[in-house]
Amino acid sequence: MAWTIVFARSFARSAWPVRLLVLAVCALIVVRCGSLFLEPTLAAEDGKRVLAYFYENRALSEVLRWKAGYLALLPNVFGFTAVRLPIEWAPRFLTIAPAFVTLLVFTLFASSAFEPVVPSRGVRLFACLALSLVPVGTYFLVCHTDYSIWNALFLLLLLSLAPGSGQPLGAATGFLARAFLIWSHPLTFVALPVHAFRLLRDRGVLPRAAAALLVLVQLAHLAFGLSSKRARAHGETLFDPEFWLERALLAAQHVSEDVVPRALLGLNGATQALERGPTFSLFLTAATLGAVTLVVALGPKQTARSTYLLLGYLIAALSLAVFASEVQNPGSSRYTYVQTLLCVLLVSLLAAELVTRLLPNRALARAGLGLAVLVYPAILCLDSLENYRDHRQGNGERIATCVRELAALERENGGPCGFTFHCKKRHDWSFQVEAPPCPPAAQMQARMR
């Protein structure tokens, strides 16, 4: 994929602090999902709606499969690829591949592509460490194929903050990566105004051409990225002012009670704070807004004013989009995940701004203070490791048994065809595989065996 090429080249050319960051985040992901790498459980949709579906439906056109009323390219590509590997490898691939996307989420901001946004590599490294350490989700949002759409959404919004490349290859790969991500989540339309801003703001023919093409891709996704049934359902309320006012108030409450507290206190701390009442959460939100307003008014030293404004817009717009979509349980971790990461990034920039103003001419002292500040999210991370455990880990043994039996059936039938197989899991979605009929050549080969 385009962004993996960019990431690999950026990593190869990066200085040792960035390489250490990548290795540290890899270690953190292993700590959070290590048991699942060893014994994948294929929780929830990954077994029934990814592995089983693509095992039965192997045509290349299935990469464009619609699920739940939208097209999600990233998990489709993972599922399509997984069933083309030896079946014993497929569950592990469906666990490790989304973990690699998570690695991109937590380290991409340190790459040189974001130097025009935040010139200081130290600040970018600090933000990446904060993004990786603050516990804002569960293992689903780290190493689960179906939930990888949320990391794809964050990657798109993060990339939208950076100007396009002025080199032909960089501009092409950047455009392809963003276009792929646009078609990997139903809510990517929130990045449309940011890409329009890039069209007006970026300099050079190639960056502006790429931004213009991305605006067209976003418009196409907005027009065709949802099923007609879902589009008609939302079209009925599109011009209803009362609906939008109600949703805006709910989104504002969501940001105040869920997004900001989770960014500052972690998932567990935010839950405990909300149990005591909304006052403390409201105080945290007011303090954060006040700090952003002050920095924007004084003029930030680490980044441009537009970065704070764009981050604020993305948090607000995505929260409004979640509530306007009328999803069930909008306060769950997946519907808050991307906004919370954006808020962590915003707070990291605020912290770096504060440290810079306190110690304007002492680089070593600034680095020491920055590392001291990171002790807090590290404590939150250690305190919340249990959130990343799959308490149905026993299903890993069942999945291993299922794929061994599937492999035996494939050998018996001369390929992935001509059988029906049921994989039963405990306290989770079991799934059934109905392999397509075997072609005559495969049937003859199986008889000869």
Task: Report what the structure shows.
The protein contains 19 helices and 4 strands. It has helices at residues 2-13, 16-38, 45-56, 73-82, 90-107, 121-133, 140-143, 148-160, 168-182, 192-201, 205-224, 228-235, 241-275, 279-298, 305-324, 333-358, 363-383, 394-413, 440-448, and strands at 66-67, 70-71, 420-423, 431-434. The mean pLDDT is 84. It has 2 domains: 2-388, no CATH class; 395-448, no CATH class. The protein is an all-alpha fold and 449 residues long. Helices cover 69% and strands 3% of the residues. The strands form 2 sheets. A two-stranded antiparallel sheet has the order 1-2. Strands 3-4 form a two-stranded antiparallel sheet. β3 (420-423) and β4 (431-434) form a beta hairpin.
Q: What is the structural class?
A: mainly alpha
Strand portion: under 5%
Low-confidence stretches: none
If you average the pLDDT, what whole number results?
Answer: 84
**Overall 3D shape:** globular
The count of β-strands is 4
Q: In sequence order, what are the helices and strands, one letter per element?
A: HHHEEHHHHHHHHHHHHHHHEEH
Intertermini distance: 40 Å
Instruction: Provide the gyration radius in Å.
Output: 23 Å
Strand neighbour order, sheet with most strands: 1-2
Total domain count: 2
Biggest beta-sheet profile: 2 strands, antiparallel
Tally the helices: 19
What percent of the residues sit in helical stretches (DSSP H or I)?
A: 55-70%
